[in-house]
């Protein structure tokens, strides 16, 4: 199967959409994946029903105006209190590759648990193929004749329901626009599902690594769904569907061997300096190629999944994440995997993410354990 390609957007300068705390006019210093302190302004909000505190902090060079001690944060953001003060671009998240493709005994499936369980277990990026089929957007693996799990609107409705019930979580969605259709085809599913109420709209196009807000800022603003699209996004027309490749790069697509290099494949031709100024995703989903009705398609190599999703060892997620951290001097932002619940133990992919984030894994995987403290 060929590597997807299309038109890649290139900006000679940034476009400022509106004044915001995320404006790049702030002088920032980032400490990658470690909790940071600030000598600038601190925003705090207290929920009156529980008394927990979410603090919104950024590293900047402005002068503090408050003299009172900032309350200690007791409310986790995306599962960890340490994440609340970190920028969105300074967190490593597990990505469920082809999140909707859950169907027993279907070779084209990529996950075991449905999306609600994925989110309960700690997955914070959901990726999927979207196809234009029967005058609507459907979620299909390679072909809607091979595996069709329904409409995008239905899937996003489920995701939105979870976001509503979990007010301290930020969820990222990566839409693979498989048929390269206009992004306007995706606005109705986003609006009708209710996701439109939560979508994040950047103040700058494109967002560089240091332009992103902290999780607590996104949570306090209520804009907790970040939507990326790989091809055909037009942020000046639809500001909440973010162009992926001007703000993130990927390692080689759907690998067929266990070498898992940390090189930039998409977008092609960017410089090292450009790569260093964007988030990045490592594709750690080992595949085999099969033929279906004359079409070559890639499906998960389930025979090696425990080794692929392991914390250590040749071909493991842990080894690739560490190699990429060493090569780029910062951890990956997104760890894309099939069957996230498998590995050398249940939750091994989340252990790798925790190591990248320099936090202690909370061990909640797998099967959808609920945390009442993070829910409405």
UniProtKB/TrEMBL annotation:
Transmembrane segments: none annotated. One of its GO terms (biological process) is lipid metabolic process. It holds the Pfam family PI-PLC_X. GO terms for molecular function: phosphoric diester hydrolase activity. It comes from the Eukaryota. Signal peptide: none annotated. This is PLC-like phosphodiesterase. It comes from Aspergillus carbonarius (strain ITEM 5010).
